[in-house]
Design brief:
Blueprint (H helix, E strand, L loop, with lengths): L5 E6 L3 H13 L3 E7 L3 H11 L3 E3 L2 H5 L6 E4 L6 H10 L3 E5 L6 H14 L3 E4 L6 H11 L6 E11 L17 H17 L5 E9 L5 E10 L5 E7 L1 E12 L3 E4 L12 E5 L2 E5 L6 H14 L8 H20 L2 E3 L1 H4 L8
Parallel strand pairs: 1-2, 1-4, 2-3, 4-5, 5-6, 7-10
Antiparallel strand pairs: 7-11, 8-9, 8-15, 9-10, 11-12, 12-13, 13-14
């Protein structure tokens, strides 16, 4: 690693890596993708050829043993995030781990401990948080532009129900809509409100055709002072990707709230009967994510999503899963009180 180049390795050939993250590393200021690994060497070689990557490995261990690799991106199925994040850091690599960070609090805490032991940068890959509009919206809220906050409503839904072999439909691999897409509105609401929910209730639709994972879920998050937030997430519903913020004096609407192109990054501010489109710089939020990660390594700049944030988001997701399974209201303290703590 030098001040001019950070060499990346990719653990796995997931579509998110091929379609978004690998191109973004290649478009970033100083990143180069030097290697990719798969448990199927032919798959690794094919992806390497398609993406212009010099080296292909037939095991994750072989890539981690490559001394030329400075950082790795982990887009593996959810149940493998913790294991391979820790192994990568133990091999001296910085790690950008795809969301969700971990399946539960215990895994998240072990990952954070490993980061501190190895002095490696560890970050969670919520690409949307790097888009400048979120800092703008947070500032508008804090300045009282929409008055007092009364509520949020976030939706992230898509329909992939005919792909029966998809890893998202494997319960033992951390499948289900809450961890796959529900995590986005939950993360965004927590960030913009700058609070953790006190309790939550989630109702989910489980499909025996899809491994009995939650194919759709609707939730209510209870915050202090009577503020509430609702969310819907689905892998078997018409596409939607939005966030609405309701205040006493106005509203903010984000039509492409989590997944957006350079052309769809604007949002809307409504107040006193007038709806105004707020223009935002055209950016690639994946490239910004990579540049911010590089800055964390080389310039010691704080990554926009702290490890405390990732741990707290894991608490909420774990509580959502518990509520959905038990069809009950869950107080967040039921999760956080079981946390080992002392990792931050």
């Amino acid at each position: 690693m030098t001040d001019s180049v950070i060499n990346w390795g990719i653990l796995g050939c997931a579509s998110i890596a091929k379609e978004a993250v690998i191109p973004s590393i290649q478009q970033s200021k100083i990143g180069e993708v030097r290697a990719i690994a798969s448990r199927d060497i032919e798959k690794a070689k094919k992806t390497a050829e398609q993406c212009g990557i010099p080296a292909a490995y037939g095991s994750y261990e072989d890539l981690l043993a490559d001394p030329s690799i400075d950082a790795v991106y982990i887009p593996l199925p959810n149940h493998l995030h913790s294991e391979w994040t820790i192994k990568a850091m133990q091999s001296g690599k910085h790690v950008l781990c795809e969301k969700p960070f971990a399946l539960d609090t215990n895994q998240a805490e072990e990952m954070i401990k490993a980061s501190k032991r190895t002095n490696r940068v560890l970050a969670e890959g919520y690409m949307y948080r790097h888009h400048p509009r979120y800092a703008m919206i947070k500032e508008m809220i804090e300045e009282g532009k929409i008055g007092g906050i009364r509520g949020f409503h976030g939706e992230f839904c898509f329909n992939n129900s005919e792909d029966y072999n998809n890893v998202r439909y494997q319960p033992d691999m951390g499948g289900g809509s809450i961890l796959d897409v529900g995590c986005y509105p939950i993360n965004a609401i927590r960030y913009l409100l700058n609070q953790e929910p006190e309790a939550l209730t989630v109702n989910a639709f489980y499909s025996p055709l899809h491994g009995n994972v939650d194919m759709m879920a609707s939730g209510l998050l209870e915050f202090s002072k009577g503020v509430s937030a609702t969310f819907q997430c689905s892998m078997w519903a018409d596409y939607k990707n939005t966030l609405h913020i309701i205040g006493t004096k106005g509203r903010i609407e984000i039509p492409f709230a989590y997944s957006c192109s350079e052309e769809t990054g604007n949002f809307y501010f409504s107040s006193k009967g007038e709806r105004k489109e707020i223009t935002v710089s055209k950016v690639n939020q994946y490239v910004l994510q990579i540049d911010h990660f590089h800055d964390s390594i080389l310039q010691k700049q704080p990554y926009p999503i702290s490890l405390e944030d990732s741990l707290n988001n894991t608490h909420v997701l774990q509580a959502c899963l518990k509520s959905a399974k038990g069809r009950c209201r869950v107080e967040l303290s039921e999760i956080t009180n079981k946390s080992v703590g002392g990792v931050l």
